[in-house]
Amino acid sequence: MLEFLLGVAVVAALFGVLAVCLNLEAGVTGLLNFGLVAFFGIGAYATGIASLHGVSWELGMLIGVVLAALAGAGVGLLGRTLAAEYWAVATLALAELLRLIALNTDSVTEGARGITTVEPFFGSLGPTERDLAWLGLGLALLAVCAFVASRVTETQFGRILRLVREREELAAALGHDVVSAKVRVMAISAPMAALAGSLYTHYITFIGPQEMAPFGTFLVWTMVVVGGLGSVYGVIAGAFLVQLLYEVTRFIDDITDISPESAGGVRVLVVGAALLGFLLFHPAGLIPERLRRIRAEG
Amino acid sequence: MGEVLFDTLIDGSELALIAVGMTLVFGAVKFANIAQVEFATLGAYGTVLAGSLIGGGPLVVEAILSIVGVGLIAVGLYHLIFKRLLIRSPATAMIGSLALSILLRALIQTITGPRPKELDVPLERANDILGALVTPSQVRIIVISVVALAALMAVLRLTALGRSIRAVSANPDLAAAAGIDVRRVIDVVWLLAGLFGALGGVMYAIDNQVSLEMGFGLLLPVFAAALLGGFGSPGGAILASYLLALAESVVLRVDWGEVINTGSAYLDSSYRPAIGFVLLLLVLLIRPQGIFGREARRA
Fold first, then answer.
1. Per-residue pLDDT tens for A87-102?
2. Domain count, chain B
3. Within a domain: residue A100?
4. Is the N end or the C end of chain A the one with fewer CB atoms within 10 Å?
5. Chain A to chain B, count of Cβ pairs less than 8 Å apart?
6. In terms of pTM, does the model score above 0.90?
7. If pLDDT is split at 50, 70 and 90, which confidence band does B276 have?
8. Does the beta carbon of A214 lie under 8 angstroms from any beta carbon of chain B?
């Protein structure tokens, strides 16, 4: 039981980083990133491919982070010409393209088999101590990312981002460079996703194309919407809750007489219902974004 | 040559049926419904379900029951879910449609399990037409699709209902002021989106399999077609679907090695979906308003 919860907490902390990242993009700036898993995948595959060639893990992680920042900036630049909904689909298409490349370029990515040579961290520790150490590492990364994200949100830059979310034309009319704001917020957030991807790969010591399926993006969206779009603490709470929900339903075929094949569907169903339910009935999320009131002089 | 022609006609027809529904809904309520492709999945599974309910009737009857059912489901989903989400914003509706898309697939998996199914199509001998091997079923797919699409275009262009749909798509407030019952038109549009999406799904399933991923696998090509045609323009979406299918077929058949003088090199067919993605991205970059459209680009 303890080991199960520890495992859930480690993965939830890493997904919490993804939630913080998506919240900066979607919650604060209003950028609907439907291809978040691509940036996670860039970090994960950089780590995986580095391990295939015997490159040190630090360098693999660094390459992933730099590539993700560049890719993020490039995707942000697409916001120059595209309205929000079209940008969303472009990100989804990019993520699917990367997944197809990961799946089909056997010579580089080992194809559908995935990469299994990733170096485990804390290899000398016992299983429980190992997970405790991982939890510490995951929470530390989460804390750093949450700190960076809330600093970004509180600055003048953050106010511009929220203005882009609410009234993009107004932000442009006030003389703010909207495209540059989008590029910068993507370049700040994408490396977070890559770091999470890299650490996740070291945690499960494996990366395959199925880890880049659109379901990953959808899971993080659920975390962010359930927690509260725009609220850093909300989305972190959302990450732990949704991850727990998703992992607990793993046992659904043990306690009911649902066949194991259908049980996979039930697990996704529960997550989907949470997302749609919150969108319909509680769109502000569990911990809503707190907007500062400005009293008008009168 | 014949192979390219028939690939284009078959794949293009399946895409066009689904894409035309997506573009109609966009025209009426101004959001891109990701769950449109799940109407195709529902249509295919509905046909299997109808078959087991009526004890294996002819495929045509099963398919019609399923298609009508999905049409009604589409209207129901609009009233239950999308109407509410659209009040908040098109972006919320789009996130909701992503959630619904995954929810519907999970629901089907929970009920029938993840294994693909086959529609009850008899094994047929393929005929040699213009150097391509084509089965009678595939000919039927092309004929049915072209007739359905032509009928839709005729309704849109020639009838009062079609005029109302186009009026609502162009300017809902003005249409309402002119005495058009906008709410009824929107219902009709969702019905059409469900019917055509499901028909496209049945056609796809006859040619391939009934699988959970079939709809989602078509999402990006369908989206590319709707976008290339200019969102809200049914004629554009149909034309773009065939163009896209032509591009896929040609890209896979061209010997790229000969083009760049390095011996023989064909693109692996596992990259087939990538062609649609790349085309989608190129369209988004170069001409986001599509060939005929005016939407998408930021002012």
1. 898 899 899 999 999 9
2. 1
3. yes
4. C
5. 140
6. yes
7. confident
8. yes
